[in-house]
Amino acid sequence: MLKAYKYRIYPTKEQITLIEKHFGSTRFLYNYFLEYRQKAYAKGNQKVGYMVTQAELTKLKKLKEYEWLNECGSQSLQMALRDLDSAYSRFFKKQGGYPKFKSKKHTSQSFTAPQNIKLASNRVYLPKFTKDGIKVKLHREIPQDAVLKQATVSRQNNQYFVSILIDDNNAIPKPIKAKNAVGLDMGLTDLIITSDFTKYPNNKYFVKSQQKLKKLQRRHSKKQKGSNNRQKAKLRVQKLHTKVSNQRKDTLHKISNEITNQYDIICLETLNVRGMQKNRRLAKGIADVAWSEFMRQLAYKAQWKGKTVLKIDQWFPSSQICSNCGASSKKKELHVRKWECPECHAKHDRDINASINIKNYGLGQIDNRNTVGTIGI
Q1: Of the candidates 133, 167, 201, which is a domain's last residue?
Q2: Is residue 369 part of a domain?
């Protein structure tokens, strides 16, 4: 299986300068050849792909105007072209939007080294960083028999990281014999609600930090532009954003790990998160709970453990059906958290009832001829 191990790195001033050059060079090439391909497509030339841009890159590096590109690892520059080609492939397959130009003002920057990676004595050695290596905090050990595939160096809010992709030489586990199942309903009052009546609270990390963030942003706006004090104020704002992000991800990792350990089949609703965020009254709360990140974590952890994740139909009215008798009731406003079935008069908690319906609908999608073992529920 392919797995990524992400570590904090502590480069020296000279190494930071070289890392920033890599960020700038790969970003420049991505934007340069995005414009190059746009012009080619506008002229009707649809055959411009990675091989064409790679040949153009070789010519570009020989020009005196762009000789500064040679200061960076050649393979890292080529990876920028591969990233662009992958972005176009996803667009043509309708798996993503049209590629966008990258901005140097974005707080997150990165470049990738596809080979010649070495870890030794709390140092990571990459092309152009082979002399002394970069100091790294190895808080998790990489398996000894693992193959180091590639490394991605990134900067997030003035902190530097390296993400090392490995092949652990273990086959992806086959789906295990299912013994239990669960339905998950995602909400704003509670983060995750299971069909087993468990509710994971919504800690609202961003909302709790909002007043402090407002104060720091006000101080930043009052500093003189271009001054050291303005830069220091900017770093304080970035530090708080990083803290909120880390808190949120830590919670989601713990919940997704607990659920994938406990259940063999996980049924959850398909959410149009981007569309839901267009509601200006709910957008901030939806962004704070990070449903998309939770679903991403759940998917890859389930795959590692041989568990199954089932996504139900986006338009399934899980909140409108009585989980006791199956009767359908009218659409309910968001403030209605408890209701009584008009047919069987069963009293329901809105979210728990929805999670039970999600579980039942998800299990109903399973073809008995393709299941691994029997499902005990």
Answers
A1: 167
A2: no
* pTM of the complete model beyond 0.70: yes
Q: Is 192 found in the same domain as 133?
A: no
Residue 370 resides in a domain: no
Is residue 269 part of the annotated active site? The answer reads yes
- Active-site annotation holds for 67: no
Same structural domain, 148 and 192: no
- Active-site hit among 85, 264, 269, 288: 269
Any catalytic annotation for residue 333? no
Same domain, 134 and 209: no
Q: Which residue in the list 83, 85, 288, 351 is annotated as catalytic?
A: 351
Asked whether residue 132 falls in the same domain as residue 188, the answer is no
Per-residue pLDDT of the chain (377 residues; tens, 9 = 90+): 889 999 999 999 999 999 999 999 999 999 999 999 999 999 888 788 999 999 999 999 999 999 999 999 999 999 999 999 999 999 999 988 999 999 998 888 999 999 999 999 899 999 999 989 999 999 999 988 899 999 999 998 889 999 999 998 888 888 888 889 999 999 999 999 999 999 999 999 999 999 999 999 999 999 999 999 999 999 999 999 999 999 999 999 999 999 999 999 999 988 888 888 888 888 889 899 999 999 999 999 999 999 999 998 888 888 888 988 888 887 888 788 888 888 888 888 889 999 999 999 998 876 543 443 334 43
Which of 83, 185, 264, 288 is an active site residue? Answer: 185
Are 74 and 8 contained in the same domain? Answer: yes
59 within some domain: yes
**Domain range holding 146?**
2-167
3-state DSSP of the chain? CEEEEEEEEECCHHHHHHHHHHHHHHHHHHHHHHHHHHHHHHCCCCCCCHHHHHHHHHHHHHCHHHHHHHHCCHHHHHHHHHHHHHHHHHHHCCCCCCCCCCCCCCCEEEEEECCCCEEECCEEEECCEEEEEEEEECCCCCCCCCEEEEEEEEEECCEEEEEEEEECCCCCCCCCCCCCEEEEEECCCEEEEECCCCEEECCCHHHHCHHHHHHHHHHHHHCCCCCHHHHHHHHHHHHHHHHHHHHHHHHHHHHHHHHHHHCCEEEECCCCHHHHCCCCCCHHHHHHHCHHHHHHHHHHHHHHHCCEEEECCCCCCCCCECCCCCCECCCCCCCCCEEECCCCCCEEEHHHHHHHHHHHHHHHCCCCCCCCCCCCC
Clarify whether residues 17 and 138 are in a common domain.
yes
